[in-house]
Amino acid sequence: MKALLQRVRGARVEVGGEVVGAIDQGLLVLVGVEPQDTPASADKLLHKLLNYRVFSDAEGKMNLSLRDVQGGLLLVSQFTLAADTRSGMRPSFSKAAPPALGAELFDYLLQQARTLHPAVGSGVFGADMQVHLVNDGPVTFLLEV
Fold first, then answer.
1. Which of the ends of the chain has fewer CB neighbours closer than 10 A, N or C?
2. What is the pLDDT of residues 31-77, one digit of tens each?
3. Which one of the listed residues 80, 85, 111, 130 is annotated catalytic?
4. Residue 38 annotated among the catalytic residues of the structure
5. pTM score, whole prediction
6. Of the residues 55, 78, 106, 125, which is catalytic?
7. Is-catalytic flag, 78?
């Protein structure tokens, strides 16, 4: 699994002009599923998302996790993260999971997140989404598990 996490002051996802998920301070995470991914991959990714230290402490150092700051987690499926862009002028999506597996693992990740963290929102798998965010920093990391 790949995840592009962005520390945000706020973020929301809209589908058809309706807000389907929103958070205040926290992490907006774009999630890409690959064919070899499993529920164990999702568990490992979620552990990193909840505990990755990307928030500043009193001294301005990135020593605090999402759990420490009690921030929101907004998960958005994005198969394009699995694109192969090494050659040519058009991305190849041969490394992306088939839609059924992608949906299954994204849903699993979302349900596990809602079990373990109090403030979780999401986009809609496979939908045309508009994502609005205020990146804080900017701080952005690509995680691969």
1. C
2. 999 999 999 999 999 999 999 999 999 999 999 999 999 999 999 99
3. 80
4. no
5. 0.96
6. 78
7. yes
